[in-house]
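Contributing new records

If you add data, match the layout below exactly. Sequence lines come first and carry their own label; structure lines follow with theirs. Keep one chain per record. Anything else will be rejected by the validation script.
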Amino acid sequence: MTSADAAAIFEKIALLMELKGENPFKIRAYRSGAEIVESYAGDIMKMAEANELSGIKGLGEALRDKLHELATTGHLSFYENLKSEFPDGIFELFEIQGLGPKGIKQIYAELGVGSTAELKSAIEDGLVAKLAGFGEKKAAKILEGIAFREAHASEFRLEQVMPVVEQVLEILRAHPGVSRAEVCGSYRRGKETVHDLDFLVATKHPENVIEGFVSMPMVIQVIAKGSTKASVHVAQGLQCDLRAVASSEFPFALNYFTGSKEHNVAMRQRALSRGWTLNEYALSQIEGREGTAIPEIEDEPDLYRALGLDWPEPELRENTGEIEAAEKGQLPYLIKLENLRGVFHNHTTASDGKATLAEMAEAAQELGFQYLGIADHSKSSFQANGLDATRLRRQIETIRELNQTFGSDFRIFAGSEVDILKDGSLDFDDDLLAELDYVVASVHSVFNLPEAEMTQRIIRAIENPHVTMLGHLTGRLLAQRPSYAVNIPTVIDAAAETGTLIELNASPWRLDMDWRWWKLAKERGVKCSINPDAHSVHGLKDVVFGIRSARKGWLTREDVVNCLTLDEVTTLIAKKRLKS
């Protein structure tokens, strides 16, 4: 039982208690407990097993006892009993866009709906539209959400699969019969979602390794098992595949199973031009054809060198120019996590965050950041407890006072995530925006505008000289909500013209702007800001997902403003408003 597993159980308890109409303070306690468990710096599950949790702020006796039970048994009777009161499919409903806990509670209480299939049927029968507060329009939108969710049901976000990758690799690398182990496929290439996970090992004892793989504690079903490959299901139906090869075959298998298909085709064609054939096992001379002698290949870079190429980072391998760049020695030196000096666009308890301003600042410093940008929601985001002018000015003053307590090597930037209203105007007037250090402008409502109207709405907003950066450009939620209609190249051109930064929202739910557009933005001279959109201290660490996406978009540290020093970024974010 990991801390992430325990936190997920606490969060599910909170959801079920909400459906039951339990005391809001109890619900909040479990949500707070989930956050504490997930973000605690030490090994909280080991401490729970030893009954050493007393003194951790926010964990009362009841939660400590439940963590102890989870840590020692892997189960929680309270959760199992609570879950038994509801249909098995109840948690599916929380994945549907446009249907929050209150709506789920209502349709469950009044219609007995407890799964996606039952909800779909109830909508089609007209029952949901008749409920108070719903209506035909809302019912139709929920049906669209169900269709989108079904279409993306086999997709998994990075925060869902990253812990699995780490656990499986740890097990494989600890196996005495394994000399090398890596994850391949779309995960290694840094894709924003994956359908399954592909693992590769080098071994002289494949059957022993395969047996260990299918016996891993997280395995819930063995799909197939052979002498050199196996497939299993782990939690949430995620499929993990393992291929075992000889050490001499490992570089070729690693390259082949990493992909992409298009990249592999280009590699095979390059091999053929030299009189060789390339597959997942070897680089070989074509029989009966003269060719250059094949050099010794011990690792993946050796394979690329043999084909006259520099080694491209796995994230670049989509056949979008990496072969040409590798041939010319022009591959970018991609950004790394350690290049980040600070982050913008983060929330506190002043709006919908789970940590106070001081707690967020402390966590940022513990991560080694030189600066932290706070950007709580503006007043139109009432669902997120958005700040009005009075509350925002009070927060600005608090930030100024708190900054006086820091040394010269750390600063909080006072900002706001200001709603872009339907007509492109902003949620605060220019006088208030001018009091801020920086402004993130984002769309949070009216997603159904025609493309031309939505595009113009966003452009009007970023033409305001007080706007520093554009937040989550397309509004998508991965595997849950599609992007709204917007002409991204036109927005990129407008950002270049106005000097507006574009955010790469690092939340694994968003990763927006998408990696596919960053090469164009880079060509236009638009700078990126990798922002975690953190709503908790733990959320600050989401920058790791943003870095993966930035690397896939060919970005270097020179393209990302949060790689600048405190003095440099202070100058940069003040630059645009000086034009006003």
